[in-house]
């Protein structure tokens, strides 16, 4: 509070505990603390509020009514799981909102109400699985929407309605493979769309045709194998990225309806050649680097077209051997020969999507929206699942009824249904074949029911199901065999049940699973082979269980696991090499609130620069191992750990002083150091070697990224990492 005290004035006295208030600039910083609620003593005239690294879980309705002048709000890394409807109501001046790196799973229609001036909304790195149409309807000033690195599979029609001035939509690093034809229909000002690193198997031409003004489209890193005739009709498109896909062929007139196209990036595909690209008269550059180009006579028409159209081409021959490595622009037509002329194989085009079934009448007491293809019978005191919804229904909301049982063939004629909500329906039995015929279903929500078991055929007939939410039910074991019919399953929620163990075979059939949520159960044991089927697993959340040791054996064979949560398990000691199976992939490790008493000096063996965040707060150990090789850290939380600040802790003291992070480490003993920050304690001054200096002493000869940032900060330059510049 030194800055607030120096500034003086009545407002300075209102600065919340553990925060720094700069009243001259109307800034308040409450970084990497232990706040569990939005402080109610923030000065009313505050314009910029930085709350990164706290633990809010829920942002309640009207949480910021006391600060109506806010223009910038940063809530990164705050463990937020839910935004209540009206959470930001009253922030009519806010222009920047950062909610990155939280655990938000669903955006409701009123979650972002009241943000009429918002220009940038950052939601990167959450676990958003579904966006309800209307969620962005109150953001009429938004220009940038960042939804990267979430868990989206499907975008419904009109999902971005209301974003009249949006210029850049970032949807990279999701799992999108279904886009409604009208998904982008309400974005008249959009100039850039990022869809790279998704699961699109075909170019979504109909959805993209609504973007008349977009000039740049990123579709790289999608498993697209073929670009069909006139597949892309974007009148203003100038830059198209289709790099690192799975392209094997491109139709001659694929881009004929995008007359402004100037740059086409086709790097790192499986193309042996291209035809002359008819209609792409404005094209200036084509990049084909990293393709297995066959520079035979079959490539001559394309090569001649390049010369006639004066298009610059980047790429080199992979065959025949005599031309291997030769650049395309160095070839002469006579060199491109064939021993035997054979017509190229016909490309395999993606199968056509079935046409929508005709609309029917809406069941009595329910609401059907033909514009959004939604049906809702929420909280209608129904005892049986209604029928006769329109055949083109995409989202069906049946929450808060009393069905008890879901019978076979419960949803006839709904072949286009994508999202089904059955939360809080008192369901005890999901009978075999209950979902039969739901061939397009992606999301199934069965939260807050009374399910204790599932028949192996419970999910038969829903092969596209990717997100299954079974939180808050009565399972005591993982339902064995239930996932055999779900080849597309990506995310499985089994949190807050009563599961006691993970046994071998429990996850059989879940080969594509990426996110497994098991928090809040009673798991005591995980069999060594229990996770073996889930070789693509990226996130494993086991917090709040009864594990007494790190399940090292079960973590073997998970080469993609980047996030592991073991918080709130009664693990008292960690031995050597407990995380070695994850040495090549782990980035985020949660070990907080466990009562941890001892960490072996080599417990973190194998881990290092890849680790971005490490949570060790609220434990009982008095020392921690040397972590000087954790050079990529962006978050380190050591709050509420009873450190004994003697000479054995000197390496930690020195290392913390090289970091440009606020870590919260405090001395518990000896008595003269109690309550002091580890980095500020004077007890280390009597230790041997103290006079040799602080920075770099813990690991001579190595300079961490964090220490470089700290040096730049001291020299007046901006640090490389700006996650938490306040110490």
TrEMBL record:
Biased composition (Basic and acidic residues): 326-338
Protein name: Chondroadherin-like protein
Major site of localization recorded for this protein: secreted
Locations listed in the record: Secreted, Extracellular space, Extracellular matrix
SUPFAM superfamilies, A to Z: L domain-like (SSF52058)
Domain LRRNT: 14-48, 361-395
Ribonucleoprotein keyword on record: no
Oligomeric form and interacting partners: Associates with collagen and binds to collagen fibrils.
Location of the LRRCT domain: 291-339, 642-688
Chain's role: Potential negative modulator of chondrocyte differentiation. Inhibits collagen fibrillogenesis in vitro. May influence chondrocyte's differentiation by acting on its cellular collagenous microenvironment.
PROSITE patterns for the chain: LRR (PS51450)
This protein's UniProt keywords: Disulfide bond, Extracellular matrix, Glycoprotein, Leucine-rich repeat, Repeat, Secreted, Signal
SMART domains from the UniProt entry: LRR_BAC, LRR_TYP, LRRCT, LRRNT
């Amino acid at each position: 509070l030194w800055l607030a005290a120096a500034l003086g004035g009545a407002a300075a006295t209102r600065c919340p505990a553990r925060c720094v208030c700069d009243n001259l600039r109307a800034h308040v910083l409450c970084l990497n603390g232990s706040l569990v609620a939005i402080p109610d003593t923030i000065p009313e005239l505050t314009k910029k509020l930085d709350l990164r690294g706290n633990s809010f879980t829920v942002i309640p309705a009207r949480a910021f009514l006391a600060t109506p002048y806010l223009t910038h709000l940063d809530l990164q890394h705050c463990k937020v799981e839910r935004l209540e409807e009206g959470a930001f109501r009253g922030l009519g001046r806010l222009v920047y909102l950062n909610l990155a790196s939280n655990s938000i799973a669903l955006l409701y229609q009123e979650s972002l109400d009241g943000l009429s001036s918002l220009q940038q909304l950052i939601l990167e790195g959450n676990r958003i699985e579904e966006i309800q149409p209307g969620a962005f309807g109150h953001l009429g000033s938004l220009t940038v929407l960042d939804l990267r690195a979430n868990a989206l599979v499907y975008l419904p029609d009109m999902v971005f309605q209301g974003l009249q001035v949006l210029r850049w939509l970032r949807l990279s690093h999701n799992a999108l493979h279904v886009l409604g034809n009208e998904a982008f229909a309400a974005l008249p000002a959009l100039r850039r769309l990022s869809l790279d690193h998704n699961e699109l198997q075909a170019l979504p031409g109909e959805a993209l045709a609504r973007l008349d003004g977009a000039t740049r489209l990123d579709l790289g890193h999608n498993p697209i194998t073929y670009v069909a005739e006139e597949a892309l009709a974007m009148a203003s498109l100038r830059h198209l990225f289709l790099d690192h896909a799975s392209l094997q062929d491109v139709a001659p007139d694929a881009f004929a309806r995008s007359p402004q196209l100037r740059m086409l990036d086709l790097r790192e595909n499986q193309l042996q050649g291209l035809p002359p690209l008819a209609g792409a008269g404005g094209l200036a550059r084509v990049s084909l680097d990293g393709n297995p180009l066959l520079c035979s006579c079959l490539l001559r028409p394309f090569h001649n077209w390049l010369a006639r159209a004066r298009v610059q081409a980047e790429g080199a021959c992979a065959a025949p051997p005599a031309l291997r490595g030769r650049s395309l622009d160095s070839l002469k037509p006579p060199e491109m020969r064939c021993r035997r002329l054979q017509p190229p194989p016909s490309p395999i085009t993606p199968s056509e999507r079935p046409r929508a079934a005709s609309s029917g009448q809406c069941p009595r007491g329910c609401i059907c929206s033909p514009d959004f293809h939604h049906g809702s019978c929420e909280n209608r005191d129904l005892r049986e699942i209604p029928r006769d919804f329109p055949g083109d229904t995409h989202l069906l909301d049946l929450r808060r009824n009393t069905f008890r049982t879901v019978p076979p063939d419960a949803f006839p004629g709904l072949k286009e249904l994508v999202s089904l909500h059955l939360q809080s329906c008192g369901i005890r039995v999901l009978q075999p074949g209950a979902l039969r015929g739901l061939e397009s279903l992606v999301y199934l929500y069965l939260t807050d029911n009374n399910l204790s078991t599932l028949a192996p055929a419970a999910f038969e007939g829903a092969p596209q199901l990717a997100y299954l939410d079974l939180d808050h039910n009565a399972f005591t074991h993982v339902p064995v065999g239930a996932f055999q019919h779900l080849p597309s399953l990506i995310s499985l929620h089994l949190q807050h049940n009563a599961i006691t163990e993970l046994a071998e075979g429990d996850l059989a059939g879940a080969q594509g699973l990426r996110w497994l949520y098991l928090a809040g159960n009673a798991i005591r044991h995980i069999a060594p082979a229990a996770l073996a089927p889930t070789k693509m697993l990226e996130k494993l959340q086991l917090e709040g269980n009864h594990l007494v040791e790190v399940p090292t054996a079960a973590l073997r064979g998970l080469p993609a696991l980047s996030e592991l949560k073991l918080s709130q398990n009664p693990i008292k000691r960690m031995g050597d090499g407990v995380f070695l199976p994850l040495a090549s992939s782990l980035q985020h490790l949660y070990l907080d609130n466990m009562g941890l008493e001892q960490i072996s000096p080599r417990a973190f063996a194998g881990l290092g620069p890849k680790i971005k965040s490490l949570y060790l707060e609220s434990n009982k150990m008095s020392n921690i191992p040397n972590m000087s090789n954790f050079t990529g850290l962006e978050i380190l939380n050591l709050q509420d750990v009873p450190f004994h600040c003697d000479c054995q802790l000197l390496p930690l003291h020195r290392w913390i002083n090289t970091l440009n992070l606020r870590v919260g480490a405090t001395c518990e003993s000896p008595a003269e150091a109690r309550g002091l920050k580890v980095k500020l304690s004077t007890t280390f001054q009597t230790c041997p070697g103290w006079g040799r200096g602080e920075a770099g002493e813990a690991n001579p000869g190595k300079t961490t990224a964090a220490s470089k940032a700290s040096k730049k900060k001291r020299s007046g330059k901006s640090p490389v990492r700006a996650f938490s510049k306040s110490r």
